[in-house]
Amino acid sequence: MLANKIAVVTGSWKGIGAGIAFELAKSGADICVNYCGLPTSAIEVVNQIRYTYR
Predict the structure, then answer these.
(1) 12: how many CB neighbours lie within 10 A of its CB?
(2) I want to staple 7 with a disulfide (CB 3.0 to 4.6 A). Which of 24, 25, 42, 50 is the partner?
(3) What percent of the chain has pLDDT over 90?
(4) Residue 6: φ, ψ to 5°
(5) pLDDT digits (tens, 9 = 90+) for 33-52
(6) Read out DSSP for the chain?
(7) Contact present, 17 and 37 (Cβ < 8 Å)
């Protein structure tokens, strides 16, 4: 449904933002994970998306 689309989700390193990023990835979008906190949390979200939805 969202194949070949790019989604930039602000605050996607935790909570609701991460949930939105997961759902968009599940629908086929490429995700840009944005964070302003711990980079390790953002990396965890990226890895979960990469290995779950790709």
Answers:
(1) 26
(2) 24
(3) 76
(4) -115, 130
(5) 988 888 999 999 999 999 99
(6) --TT-EEEETTTTSHHHHHHHHHHHHTT-EEEE--SS-HHHHHHHHHHHHHHH-
(7) no
Q: Are 32 and 9 spatial neighbours (Cβ–Cβ below 8 Å)?
A: yes
Predicted TM-score of the model (pTM): 0.86
Own/partner long-range contacts of 2-5 (Cβ < 8 Å, ≥24 apart): 2/27, 2/28, 2/29, 3/28, 3/29, 5/29, 5/30
Query: What percentage of the chain exceeds 70 in pLDDT?
Result: 98
